[in-house]
């Protein structure tokens, strides 16, 4: 099991405990999909250094980029503003089909209760 943090422009942001090997699109699918067009950002801390990665749905769904395997305690950020031309109504069903076809046994073990902003500052 790993813990990942889903922030921003999704229907159900929060902290999730998922199986090791869970991907970026699987997390987005479980979080209910996006609420507006966006690029995907992942913040990961390794050995005290922070790394930020950026992905687009188009690149992952077309096969140009691989679907990203999430690491323990990474933060996936779905920013609120973007220049993407695709709408959530177009992207969410594509992601659902992609996840269902590529990961037929995908399931999230349990969702961790969302912390309040006050709790997150500790």
TrEMBL record:
<dbReference type="Pfam" id="PF10531">
    <property type="entry name" value="SLBB"/>
</dbReference>
<dbReference type="InterPro" id="IPR019554">
    <property type="entry name" value="Soluble_ligand-bd"/>
</dbReference>
<feature type="domain" description="Soluble ligand binding">
    <location>
        <begin position="4"/>
        <end position="39"/>
    </location>
</feature>
<protein>
    <submittedName>
        <fullName>SLBB domain-containing protein</fullName>
    </submittedName>
</protein>
